[in-house]
DNA sequence: GTCCTGTTTT
DNA sequence: AAAACAGGAC
């Protein structure tokens, strides 16, 4: 007989402390999948409004599959990690075309879906279909790492395998769904990264980290991110009621979102508009120019630090066709302010547009 | 390693 | 104000 103290304590704690969240009252795999993709790398408080918007707009997976991708990206605007939105949409289409609109119902098959990795596959398999497979997310690493005193690095392959084995060993086979929810909720509310509430903890007695005073040091996470700095000189070009926009290409940040024509520089932002290639081409046709290098925006990502300036150009309306030609040749678009509002944009762009008003 | 934004800590 | 942190897929 295995020692079930850990699992049963978590299950009791969960029954008493769990939050009532909309995706917890269903076995509908579409709703569970949607919530899990939105909550990847995202806290409940930030993801909840997006979950509600998406479910209202797309009540069924067929609704999501048939939506234009710009609409999906616009709805995702502000949530970050936009590949999740692209994968979400592609996955919905794949399920309609390759699975007759029905979700796969095993961990193994779920893992093949776009945007579904080991965590999300385990979550859907257990929550929707009751499969006995343990989830492994940041909360689970922390709770297991502390309670059992695992000192392996969670970012190494060896560490991950050790945690996976331990997680599946502790999993309640009677109720894998409740157990998975319980350990993650426990990590989110009780066994938090900073200042966990050890004094009121029902697992305190058997906790290795508490006993050895290692709560602050577990789990072990090595590996550092090196941040590179980039300089974006944005051109905010208007002509009559039209604005020049550009959809961001593959191979860089914010793929599929819209921003403005951009001249990126090395080492520093441009200090003079005459250094902009665009200025040379349109110098004689510019009515009004605003250049405010003092209002530089700083935008921080995990791996990049971006400094951005926005230079406003107002082109005389009689040169619209000339501008239109340049826009088309450069693979960009001229859109109205309303259209621009409706497009999915990075936070940096939304912030600039808000500040403009 | 590459992908984002919001919150917490310093 | 800046840095650190939180949160998985590819």
Automatic annotation (TrEMBL):
A Pfam family this chain is assigned to: HHH
Domain of life: Bacteria
Cofactor requirement: [4Fe-4S] cluster
Domain HhH-GPD as annotated: residue spans: 38-189
Gene3D superfamilies noted in UniProt: Helix-hairpin-Helix base-excision DNA repair enzymes (C-terminal), Hypothetical protein, domain 2, Nucleoside Triphosphate Pyrophosphohydrolase
InterPro entries (alphabetical): A/G_AdeGlyc_MutY, DNA_glycosylase, HhH-GPD_domain, HhH_base_excis_C, HhH_motif, MIG/MutY, MutY_C, NUDIX_hydrolase-like_dom_sf
EC number in record: 3.2.2.31
UniProt KW Heme keyword: no
Enzyme class per UniProt: hydrolase
Keywords, sorted A to Z: 4Fe-4S, DNA damage, DNA repair, Glycosidase, Hydrolase, Iron, Iron-sulfur, Metal-binding
Cofactor note: Binds 1 [4Fe-4S] cluster.
Catalytically driven reaction(s): Hydrolyzes free adenine bases from 7,8-dihydro-8-oxoguanine:adenine mismatched double-stranded DNA, leaving an apurinic site
General function of this protein: Adenine glycosylase active on G-A mispairs. MutY also corrects error-prone DNA synthesis past GO lesions which are due to the oxidatively damaged form of guanine: 7,8-dihydro-8-oxoguanine (8-oxo-dGTP).
Family from the record: Belongs to the Nth/MutY family.
PANTHER family membership: ADENINE DNA GLYCOSYLASE
Protein known as: Adenine DNA glycosylase
Source organism (scientific name): Belliella filtrata
Gene, per the UniProt record: mutY
